[in-house]
């Protein structure tokens, strides 16, 4: 009789050990799944942030092209087709460059502001935003041909 009771006791102990092992493996795998979900969200946020940063740079390039083509002031906004990303840029009338020779009135500096943001489709508000400000040095061509104009950014900073 004593032998039968010992065997049943061992079988019950083995069942408890197996249950604890299964519980430990479940907890560890749940931790891995949670960690993977967090990493996936971080990667998605990084992709969104990179896209918004590049769109702000596109705003600076669009402003440079407008200035090169002789558009004196501009403020505009553009949506990416079929998307919730928006970029805008603006620049006021140019300021005479203080470093230019006083006899050269054709050398100007523009302060260009560019921003981009993403509208959260669920909450319908700005979710991510990037603002850039740049100093654009502009020299019109001496022959009056806009194709020979020179414009470049001397500094760009994130606001």
Total beta strands: 6
**DSSP strand content:** 25-35%
Poorly predicted regions are: none
**What Rg do the Cα atoms give?**
31 Å
Percent range of helical residues: 40-55%
What pattern of helices and strands is seen along the backbone? HEEEEEE
Apparent shape: rod-shaped
Largest sheet: 6 strands, antiparallel
**Structural category:** alpha+beta
Count of alpha/pi helices: 1
Mean pLDDT: 80
Question: What's the domain count?
Answer: 1
Amino-to-carboxy terminus distance: 84 Å
Quick recap:
By secondary structure, this protein is an alpha+beta fold.
Describe the structure.
The protein is an alpha+beta fold and 159 residues long. The protein has one domain (2-158). It contains 1 helix and 6 strands; from the N terminus they run αββββββ. It has one helix spanning 2-68, and strands at 74-79, 85-91, 95-96, 108-119, 126-139, 150-158. Strands 1, 2, 3, 4, 5 and 6 form a 6-stranded antiparallel beta sheet that branches. The longest helix is centred in the first third of the chain and has 67 residues, at 2-68. The chain is rod-shaped and about 110 Å long.
């Amino acid at each position: 009789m004593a032998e039968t009771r010992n065997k049943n006791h061992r079988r019950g102990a083995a069942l408890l050990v197996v249950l604890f092992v299964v519980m430990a493996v479940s907890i560890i795998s749940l931790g891995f799944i949670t960690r993977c979900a967090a990493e996936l969200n971080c990667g998605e946020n990084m992709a969104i942030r990179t896209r918004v940063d590049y769109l702000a740079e596109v705003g600076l390039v669009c402003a440079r092209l407008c200035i090169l083509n002789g558009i004196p002031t501009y403020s505009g906004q553009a949506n990416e087709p079929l998307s919730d990303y928006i970029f805008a840029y603006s620049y006021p009338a140019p300021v005479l460059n203080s470093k230019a020779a006083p006899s050269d009135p054709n050398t100007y500096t523009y302060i260009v502001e560019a921003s981009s943001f993403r509208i959260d489709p669920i909450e319908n508000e700005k979710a991510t935003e990037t603002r850039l400000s740049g100093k654009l040095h502009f020299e019109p061509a001496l022959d009056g041909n806009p194709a020979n104009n020179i414009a470049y950014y001397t500094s760009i900073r994130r606001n």
